[in-house]
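Example 3.2
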Amino acid sequence: MKPKPSSPKLDSKPESSGSPLDDAMGVDRKRLARSKRRLTEAEFGDKLQESVERRKRRETYEPKLDYPDELPISRYREEIVQLIRERQVLVVCGETGSGKSTQLPKFCLEAGRGRSAMIGHTQPRRLAARSIADRLAEEMECRVGDQVGYQVRFGDQTGPDTLIKLMTDGILLAETSRDRSLDQYDTIIIDEAHERSLNIDFLLAYLKQLLAKRSDLKVIITSATIDAERFSEHFADEQGPAPIFNVEGRGYPVEIRYLPWEDVVADEFRGYDLSHHVVEAVKRLSRDTSGDCLVFLPTERDIRMVSHRVAGHYKRLGLEGRVEILPLYARLPQKDQQKIFHPSGQTQRIIFATNVAESSLTVPGIHSVIDAGTARISRYSPRSKLQRLPIESVSRASSDQRAGRCGRVGPGICVRLYSETDYETREAFTTPEIRRTNLASVVLQAKMLGFQNLESLPLLDVPRPESIREGVQTLRELGALDEQQELTEIGRTLGRLPIDPRIGRIVLAAEEQGVLAEVLPIAAALELPDPRQRPPDKQQAADEAHAEFRDPQSDFLGFLRLWRYYENLRAEGSRVRRLR
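Structure, written as tokens:
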């Protein structure tokens, strides 16, 4: 282990090979080369000069690269920077709280990356992409949108001088259809790879074949819980398997306690009550610690119900002023997120979260964890041809991730609301999404990128043949593929839409029938979580408010009524006043 130098030395700009285009931004070189014939010499010179000046401006920028001593990954800076320089792919395994997500992009800057093209850094969730961008900008003393930016659906905070771009993995996947070589990036960090979502698996396969064409591209795969050997072998090159770098986390021990339902109630025939179960765990923890607690629950609805019961428990004790009850989930407004990441320190906090807090975000100051052991996991039902979100037990890897959320500021305690036998019989890792989803969108995306079939994609896990056939059949029913499984005009149009092919086909049919304005809001509602809220303590008020938009003939028309109401508010210029 080497000591951390006080002042990192940045790599200097590589020497030009002689062509004027070599000094331009990476994303501009091919575009300028293609447009040279149709532009006059003066026009071409102006565009080239603009690109060269932009790169020079980026080259001369000296970012503030301080590495917090309290983050374990800072101690390994020199080794990791050297590996980034020497190898094309690097696998980084770091325990929760080691500083991977915030420090790795800065390591890349120190290694000379991010000047002729950006450092792309993907996250599974919008909430994580925004919060990490905010943290990086704060550490580098710049504004979000300047040297550090982010892009999520419906939000782009990047600019011409952005060196590090945080984004959801879906955004990067969508960019592959417009920029096949991903020329706007010279480094790509795939974070939280252990989640093995459809987007992550597809991106890893795409990057695997792209690396052979772009020797200048660097890829870093990182996660707290990861099947490192598989990733290393998958990205082997002429130098051998991709190097694996392990970063130790903070060294405080975490005590694991098991509290199954049968240990809480004497009546074995009593129906399960999650709220009562959590309240009992909170009572027992209060005997040993008064620090902040993170409670993992499967859904937003559970968060509202359980937090209401826990708040009532403290109110009965006359302690409501000493405890702050906070929710944390993906749809939480940004102003409410700040309460999570900037604690006042005046009261004990109990944070009720979905699995968004499992690995995507680090909640500061956590001393204890209560783990319900479940989450919503997307699964496709071939019989009903519907994608479902059943609540299921999480894997051992996810359980360990959750336990790792405490023990960072001192010895921690994790109470699991299930038995040790239950834990030991769970799957080691979460089943990759590509094995539990309809593959229509994957097959379509592969076709759009020029792959004849999924078998030609270097996927980590090849889907079952029957799943592939189901996806192909879905596309044929939509008219996206012909009898020879070649893309039709409808298929090419669907492939350019960033939505599920089935929803996309509804939109195309609506355009054909002249009802696009009416169908678009309904299609959007099918793609997004329900915009209507129904809090447990305000159910009657919510029902009365929603009744205004209810349609006796169709729930879909109810969405349309809601959209028209919203649009009318905007047209009247009262959106901000009324919606707040």
